[in-house]
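Progress report, Aim 2. The chain analyzed during this reporting quarter is listed below.
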Amino acid sequence: MRRIHHLPLTLALLAVTTAALAPAQTLPPGVRKTATLAGISEYTYPNGLRVVLFPDASSPKITVNMVYMVGSRHEGYGESGMAHLLEHMLFKGTPTRDSIMKLLTEKGANPWNGTTWFDRTNYFETLEASTGENLRWALEMEADRMVNSRVSRVDLDTEMTVVRNEFERGENDPSSVLEERVMSTAFLWHNYGRSTIGARSDIENVPIERLQAFYRKYYQPDNAVLVVAGKFDQTQALGWINQYFGVIPKPTRVLETTYTAEPAQDGEREVSLHRVGDTQNLLVGYHIASASDPDSSVFDVLAFILGDAPSGRLYKALVEAKLATRADASEYELHDPGMFLMSAEMLKTQDFKTVEDTLFRVVDNLSKEPPTQEEVNRAKNNILKNFELASNNTATIARAISENIASGDWRLRFLDRDRIEKVTPEDVVRVAQKYFLESNRTIGRFTPASESPKRAEIPTPIDLTVALNGYTGRAAAQEGEAFDPSPTNIESRLTRVTLPSGLKVVLLPKKTRGGTVVANVGFHWGNLDSLKGKSGAAQAAGSLLMRGTAKHTRQELQDEFDRLKTTIRVNGSLDGATASVNTLRAGLADSLKLVAEILQQPTFPASDFDEIQRSRIAAIESARSEPATIAGTARNKHVNRFPLDDPRAALNSDEQLARLRATTLDQAKQFYKDFYGASNGEVSIVGDFDPAEVRPLIEQLFASWKSPKPYARIPDVYTAVEAVNQTLEAPDKANAYLYAIMPLAMDQQDPDYPELVLANTIFGADTKSRVWIRIREKDGLSYGTNTSFTASSRDKRATFGLGSTFAPENVLKVENAFKEELTRLLKDGFTEAELKIGKEAMLQERQVDRTNDGSLAGLFVNQAELGRTMVRETNLENSIRNATVEQLNAVVRKWLKPEAISYFKAGDFKKAGITK
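Predicted structure tokens for the chain:
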């Protein structure tokens, strides 16, 4: 499913004092402190604005999240999609600020975005917190666009087509459309039955006057909650909020409370969908209680018990039994009563009726065969682990509580965590019996109601003032150190060693929020000759690594991960294997031992091999008719001209399927035996750990695990190719795709590399770039369009290209717009203003990236393999910082040749009347 309401997030809490008992705090006039929990405080301003502050002195970032209590639930007749359309419009600018997207990019915000859902719309940006200036700027900007956004006819004319293209992208995915149909059939009256994207006719025809009225009605301080999280001074922040938001008057209009309630469903409902596709999908939905109801926590546990892989009951009954390629369960827990969804995906050759009957049997057996205490504990351990791991990122918390705010109160997140801890097997059975009724479900058939139909009466949302009365929660998580993410400081704190075994190790110990630590491992093996023809076996071997070891079954491994509060990913490929660990200090040693065990003692279960093969076949079949797949395959085939047995070969769908079907389990086992080992590899660890304990452990775990065959890196060879322009049909697809590509004989050591990276960013790689502004902002042709530039670390092989999605009838407009912008660039060059903005944005974004420990760990592994240090990062950034507009324009004209660019377009052009 596309969405599970309860995000993996919580705080480790102990008792905290209430606002009334907290030390006195000087507040702006009229501002009241209304709630305090887990280091988070809420304030109310005289104009109705609510403010939630979550200070974290150890964070190098600041996140501002503006939540408005308006979503598709609030839309009237003819207004479907209006909340989402308005979300787009608020990036267009105000009388004093032009493009908000451009301004955010210039500030180096990462991430930033706006999102719309049933109950709310939110806008967020994460910025550097080295000074308070970024916070002040973000608060002033959000206050400005709250009431001064243009929302003009001119902007709507271009943005409407962008949103329509986003609508068309969703129409390409049969599973997404099926979900919309099930929701609209299940909800006859409530607006949850209407997709947030809206009806195409409403998107295309909305009068600007109605959109402006909608904006003036809902974008007001008394309908908003402002969340600020990260490193900031609370008193200063409250003062700035008062300065920029406090001056906005409380509106005189009264917001109506939505009152439409969905009646109890009185019979099974049916919906069918017939579209071009290559797999079958079953989706079953049941009405459930709202997010504020105590039963919502039981549904979290129930979704895991049913939908988890490999322990889930649906997974075992459908996927392990080879009836389906995928099975899942999730829930939409919302302000009003929502939905519980179960799904299954099948190949065309698999029997739909058998899958449907099996799914219902699993649901019915929840009463006959109640969940065991082990099943319930496993679910709770997994959910609570994810809560705790995610709690250490204040930016994540700032965005995630948008859902809880929309459901009634941000404190609901912590109350829900507490409720999950108390869920029992009896609760799961009770809830299943209460809601999983035949009369309460929407599937693919219709059954007349009996004379005395049994109906599920869905409770109304509870009064949260009662539920939260006296609730104090727990203490906030341990704070980390204030870390300087500059390359020089990072290098000064690094330990780089080569162990006696030859393994290269990079260590960066530092205090982190909650004691988190991440580790990355990379091993390399084989060479061009020894790996020829081995791709299928290598893929199969790598996919089976985490399916069980000599000591632990797949389920036992997952249980160990949950016990250790760790997330481990191990993947094997043709020329190597990677592993990543995200855990807490206490779990690091055992997590590394599990990584070694997974890599060195896999059991390659036959049943899992069959399951993975079926799943991959289904994935290829499902994607083969997609425009992006068709165009991307043609592009890859054009520039990668290697024989099919070459490790670098590009394969189409038929070739991928043939390779999959020809691969056996014995071949996978033999590949593992011939190649796997740690003779050539790197390990990096970043976070809260003791290097003196870790170094000998790494040597102990991997020193004796030698690679059977010699290793030599496979070169990435540059091949000059002729330019082509191909138009490919993708029948019955509402969206089309275009790829453009030009190979270049360049590597990252080339003196022109930094300038070309910078030039690509300014030209087309971000939301202030020329290509984005032309194709999306000005012409309104595409929801997503961007250029790309990549270069090999060591080989003379690079590519420059474009990717764009659009309506099929606009294919020539998109292609010509890109060509025109490239011609203009080569003729006129960049301006000093563009260069200045591009430099600042790139350098700030790179600085923000280095505040992420996972990104650092990945960078260190790559540096160890290449023999680099952070000095290269400094040199690269200095080259960017010192680049002149003359250098930039000279580099662009030297390397970018319009006549050498190939174009690959896929879509339903025949239906659109476009000829080749």
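The chain has a mean pLDDT of 92. The CA atoms of residues 298 and 428 lie 6 Å apart. These observations will guide the mutagenesis work planned for the next reporting period.
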